Amino acid sequence: MGRSIHIRVGRAEGYVRVKPLGPMPIMGLAASAGGLTRFAGRNRELDQLSQALERASTEQGQIVAVVGEAGLGKSRLYLELTTAVPS
Q: Quick one: how far is CA 69 from the chain centroid?
């Protein structure tokens, strides 16, 4: 099944309805034979997500949508955000 990411929803509890789904597989991660390729060309997007997360941690509500065609790297962007930001 490959690796999973555990999503922490503690900051949202009490403000929105949340339903923990447990570990969710990252599409394509298990299929990559040699691991992940170098993360490149998405620093602007990663910075924007990091800033939204920072604002949310200071009780400034944030909603972020990451939308794009299949294979553009949405899951990879999320993976990079979750590994770059301490929980």
A: 17
Residue for token pair 């790297």 = 73
Q: Alpha helices, DSSP H only, in the chain? A: 43-57, 74-84
25 close to 75: Cβ distance less than 8 angstroms: no
Tokens standing for 81?
């955000």
What does the block give as tokens for 21?
Answer: 């789904």
Per DSSP, the three-state class of 55 is helix
**Burial of 77 by CB count in 10 Å (0-12 exposed, 13-18 middle, 19+ buried)?**
middle
Residue among 17, 23, 29, 22 nearest 4 (CA) = 23
- The SS3 call for residue 24 is strand
Q: Give this prediction's pTM.
A: 0.55
pLDDT digits (tens, 9 = 90+) for 25-81: 766 555 554 567 777 788 898 888 888 888 888 888 888 888 888 888 888 888 888
